[in-house]
Amino acid sequence: MTPEAPAGGQSAEALRAAPGLSSAEAARRLEQVGANRLPEAGTVPGWRRLLAELTHFFAILLWCASVLAYLAGMPQLAIAIVIVILVNGVFAYIQQERAQHAAAKLRELLPAMVSVRRDNRVIKVHTTELVPDDAVVLVAGDRVPADLRLAVAASCSVDESMLTGESEALAKVPGDTVFGGTFLVNGQAEGIVASTGGQTRLAEIAALTGKVEAPPSPLARELQRIVRITAAMALGIGALFFVLSLLVGISWRDAFLFAIGVMVALVPEGLLPTVTLSLAVGAQRMAQRNALVRNLEAVETLGSTTYICTDKTGTLTQNRMNAVEVWTPSGVLSIIGGGYSPEAEVTGKGTVEAQHLSTAALAASVGRAVLHEGKWVAEGDPMEAAIHALAARLAGPGQGPGEPDVSHRFAFDPRRLRESAIVGTTLYVKGAPESVVPLCGEDGAGRALRMVDEMASHGLRVLAVAERTLPGLPGASFKLEEVERDLTLLGLIGLHDPPRAEVRVALEAARDAGIKVAMVTGDHAFTAAAIARETGLIGSPELVLEGHNLPEDDAVLTALLDRDGVVVSRVTPEQKLRVARLLQRRGHVVAMTGDGVNDGPALQQADIGVAMGLSGTDVAREAADLVLLDDDFATIIAAVEQGRATYANIRRFLTYHLTDNVAELTPFVIWALSGGRFPLALSVLQILALDIGTDLLPALALGSEAPSKGTLKRAPERRHLMDRALIIRVFGLLGPVEALFEMTAYTAVLLGAGWTPGAELPASDVLMAASGAAFTTVVLAQLANAFACRSASVPPWRLGWFSNRLLVWAVLAELGLLAVFLFLGPLATLLGHAPPSPGGLAVALAAIPAVLLADWLYKIVRHRRVAKAAPATKV
Hints:
Layout: H1 23-33, H2 46-53, H3 57-71, H4 75-109, E1 113-118, E2 121-126, E3 135-139, E4 147-159, H5 161-164, E5 170-172, E6 177-178, E7 183-195, H6 201-209, H7 218-247, H8 252-266, H9 271-288, E8 291-293, H10 297-302, E9 307-310, E10 322-328, E11 331-336, E12 345-348, H11 351-363, E13 368-372, E14 375-379, H12 382-395, E15 406-413, E16 418-423, E17 426-431, H13 433-436, H14 445-457, E18 461-469, H15 480-483, E19 488-496, H16 503-512, E20 516-520, H17 525-535, E21 544-546, H18 554-561, E22 567-569, H19 573-585, E23 590-594, H20 600-605, E24 608-612, H21 618-623, E25 626-628, H22 633-673, H23 684-694, H24 696-703, H25 724-752, H26 764-788, H27 796-799, H28 805-823, H29 825-831, H30 838-873
Parallel strand pairs: 9-20, 9-23, 20-22, 21-22, 23-24, 24-25
Antiparallel strand pairs: 1-2, 1-3, 3-7, 4-5, 4-6, 4-7, 8-25, 10-11, 10-19, 11-12, 13-14, 15-16, 16-17, 17-18, 18-19
Helix pairs in contact: 2-4, 3-4, 4-9, 4-23, 7-8, 8-22, 8-23, 9-22, 11-12, 14-17, 22-24, 22-25, 22-26, 24-28, 25-26, 25-30, 26-28, 26-30, 28-29
């Protein structure tokens, strides 16, 4: 065989890495060409986003109402409605801008570093600092940071699907061009930067696709449903009141005023900005707990998760590999050492053979253990760093393992489950035992496989190491499988990755929350099962499935998967994708974790893709909705808790605002039923003052309510935001109680002044005091309602009156605004009311305990019904 560059690798003599630039030259070029980032020309200008907030469906309705009010000779009403539109629009715009800035900051926190050769050494720089002629070093899973011309390519294939739509990864050889934004699927490569930023192929495509909008999320569709239902009700009931007004002899001008009042009373002006705020607050709280949300709607979807498919390494375990056992045909060595340091206690038989094995495994590895700021840490794959530490420990104090002079390297392939390297004329191979052992001779194979099972049953990850002496270097036309054959097995390495201490508690919390958890991993079945037992994940009876033995029948596999504590081992990317799809067909909302290139399809298929921020590849992070900065399973459960809290906050706001709508609509209903003989308790301007002046701040405070203690003690929510329970609570209890006290306060002031039903209307000062009493009653009742809406099952005194400080401040502001609206003369005259009489004020104050008492009784009855129904629903 001749020393030519093979199809799957390259010779060191034929190709050499580019030396790269100096730091000074790189800085000069960066100043000259600018940062390596895509132009933001496709972004929508701020003025257009603000305009959109002022011209959506609800806003158009209110603009029309304002114009009609002005034409009808009511300029005050027209101005008030315009103020409503502007306040809502500006607030929604501010919240969306905050959400966008928060999302941008989150993206900045994601790893965006790349290895380059500068000053004759490999360093990491931010991708934005790349300049033309930089020498970039890539490994499998990296995203290509700019358009590169490959100088070195070892077993390389690149996923260009994001540019071409072609799902098949393309093989690359030195001289080829790879484009920024694509992903290195296999192998290793070094390339010279040809284009950066706006000059890349990705920038050209981004300019064409920048205006494409993503389809609405399930939450967005649900909100659109509520908006359209409410809008239809507002228009329909408003038109009905307009007709009724004309029928009872009211002038068309006054009839129109009543119709506008009804419409304004029913329109939830603050719904969309409050929902946006809730999602943004949820995303920020997740970020504080090391979970970065890539789109706001994912916050709510997390709360609906019913099934989590988690991998093992780094998520359930610490991803701190340590080689603790070596088996060779000469015996077993035990290695007791901490971390990646070269110091360890070695006992057992076969030290010389183990030294040779560790050197061979090191040659087939790229990752290393390095001393950084006085501490030994992993640089690259933690498993390979552990192999480097093992070689150093077996070499003896002060010896060091040395660096093998590798001429050819064949990177890890998920289909081959092994990787290899050529040093001189010797091929060294390391990989999964089931992949390596069959390529070796029969002698000792059975004994080795039995040892694999024994080591794996102790929770160790097992690697097989083998070698072969070649007659010469492989030629240009060789096939890799012809080189990786007739191997001699050197032995096995057992690596231990300790479980995370908090995983067991997190798994218990997931089960309390009604979420099923499965381990879906590429590891050996025995290793996976041992870790599952150690963490408490595995169910009873134990069910451990292996990828090559999965049932072909989808119905059978679905039945096996749809339980808690399943372990699925040795899965391929296609099998992981199949698992996600089958669980979704079963009706589950699936969260799938992953960190590798091969996890990308499954992460994209899942309802919530969860990528690792520390150990994950760019491919996985790009496909995910959630990125864990600490790679910890417990963080997923914390994110689920916040997702559920966000969903509950949206329901809290809906309950609060719709209750107010009932109280605002009631005066118009009574006026219509009386044929106009009973005076109208509230004016349109008063309703606007209630919706925007007094109700908005408590609604926002409810939208930022922290997760309740029982958030993870119940099954996931699987219902509409506006469901039967919410409607009964609003329209059957809280709303009628508020309306009853509102009209009682209004009537009490009128009766106290000597008015009787059917008689002539009393003097204007009496009507204004009565209207002020009704207005005050609604405000005070909503004050109590805000505290009642904090929970659907627990009274506010058990939650603690001051546990939501934002709500306390909002309520104080609400009382301050009430005083302004009542006692500021010109404003009170504009609204058409005056401070209530003592009798009216007494009724208004009584509304506070009445709302709280009614809500408490409702919660008691609901709790008893749930308790009675619970035994019947248990399986």
